[in-house]
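assembly run, all chains below
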Amino acid sequence: MTRSRSDFLAVRSIRAGGVRALLLTFVGLAAILGLSLVASGHQALADDPTIKIANFTFDPPTLTVKAGTTVTWVNADDIPHVVSEKDGKFRSSALDTDDKFSQTFSTAGTVEYFCAIHPHMTGKIVVTP
Amino acid sequence: MHDEFNPATEASEAEDESSGLTRRGALTCMVWAGTGLLWTLSGGVPKSLGLLGDALAAVPTGFTFLQISDSHIGFNKPANPDALGTLREAIGKVKAVKSRPAFMIHTGDITHLSKPDEFDNADQLISEAKLDVHYVPGEHDFIDEGLGKAYLARYGNGTKGQGWYSFDDHGVHFIGLVNVVDLKAGGLGRLGPDQLAWLADDLKDKSDSTPIVVFAHIPLWTVYADWGWGTDDGLQALTLLKRFGSVTVLNGHIHQIVQKVEGNMTFHTARSTCFPQPAPGTAPSPGPMTVPAEQLRSMLGIASVEVRTGDKPLAITDTPLAG
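ok done. output:
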């Protein structure tokens, strides 16, 4: 996805000419080569883990990450879901189809979460130091 | 018939729209409907055609009310790209009912995403029926940023807590319960201690012979725990209702008809006006079931409930939008 979009931008920009085109070409090439782009600030890194919500389950149900990792949930169901820590320490808004929610885990430990409107859906994030 | 109420063990014996019709099930239905429900097997699927005997095709003599459920206004996925259109058809059915119902209940999931325009569109269409409507929320009606503010601003007037209430009509005590709020990880639907205390107090002065109709979004009995189709503390509510001679429990949420009788209690879940969901355990998930367009309207519908005088149980007739 990212690759084809970057390619497209690069081609368009070359036609437009200028320095910006070169930069975008580089970005496009980097994507083609599979290099991960360095995101700035709060943006999730390309290799940060994703949890897919599909068929009313979290996939994977247990995810182990290093402290400081940002985890992103993506809803692939036709029905909205709400990602919530067990006691409500974090809670997403209603995620409709293809909506995403990200949360950074900075402290080691196990975080249990569930879908606040389909509470039989549960998952765990194991955060290692 | 059993003396002990035990929803956990009884759930597997309940009739659903896609299971075979068992002998015990047939007998149960006849007991439940008083004069008997007329069942037919169509392609292996049992289907209610209406009531046998004095009720068949007759204009009801008791007072009637209607149930609609799970309109999911705002839903636009392949299972039904036109949620507003099928609700419009359902309201058309409501308007066509021969004897004018006393009122309508809506057992939740009015909207899909609790958005103001979804509530507006639903309201506008449902009001065309020109009936009083008593609502209870579904979990889809409580997912605005204010976690239910939008619903309660519209429908919460005169209710307690997160929107529960009771009222009396024609000698029947109606109770609207809310089991979609403050749900707990790993659990099912939930009423919570405050609502249960209110229910105990609400029933305190009612005589055992008062007919009770209780309605809530998620089934109060366990239909299928693996898909969350039940209420954790539902049994506590049903225990409070056990002493009454006639109790009818009406739910939505599962977008298909499932019914059973247990002692003096009749349980019934309504079809959705928007999209069907699979029978318990027959699909990888309870998500919307996409069926061929020509079949969709046979799997959506409304329910009419007739309350007859005397000690007869309530008669429930489900009407599909088509087929």
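Helices of chain B lie at 7-10, 23-33, 83-96, 116-126, 149-155, 193-203, 234-241, 293-296.

The first strand of chain B starts at residue 15 and ends at 16.

not gonna interpret more than that til we talk
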